[in-house]
Amino acid sequence: MANENINAGGVEAAVAEKGAPLDMSATVRLIEPVKNLLGFANVTFNNAVTFTDFKVLKDAEGNLFVGMPSKPDKSSKTGYSATVRFSDDDAKAQLKDTVLTAYDTAVEKLKARAAAIDADKPPRIADQVEKAGKEAAKHNAERAAPPKGKDKSAEH
Description:
With about 160 residues, the protein is of the alpha+beta class. The chain has a domain at about 20-120: Arylsulfatase, C-terminal domain. The chain has 3 helices and 6 strands; from the N terminus they run H-E-E-E-E-E-E-H-H. It has helices at about 1-15, 90-120, 125-140, and strands at about 25-35, 35-45, 50-60, 65, 70, 80. The strands form 2 sheets. It has a 4-stranded antiparallel β-sheet with strand order 1-2-3-4, covered by helices on one side. It starts with a helix and ends in a 14-residue tail after the last helix.
């Protein structure tokens, strides 16, 4: 009987928590896009279990979505089968939001790094030469023209 109570209590607890948000965090590794693949995500649940190789993908309309980790499977239509499945649509939606938020954060960090690199980069040599030429022309225009004729004091 004691086992029945424990099992019943466990089922009730599981039913009560269904639909409750999971504690989820994600990190995204951006890659050079390959077709519609933009990056990979690792998702940690309850600071205890990490699943790797979620895919950040873009559909034909440009919308982002999350692909589940998969392994080769010759018997499936696509040649791959998912290794992670969600039975709760709310949890799957939370996963999508978490991964896409991490993707947006990774893209913003990359943009900030690119801007910082551009800001620290010295001007191109051609630009420096052009600027120096303009400054020299301005300086020469402001100078008085040398006197025409010989300077007699230089001869003696």
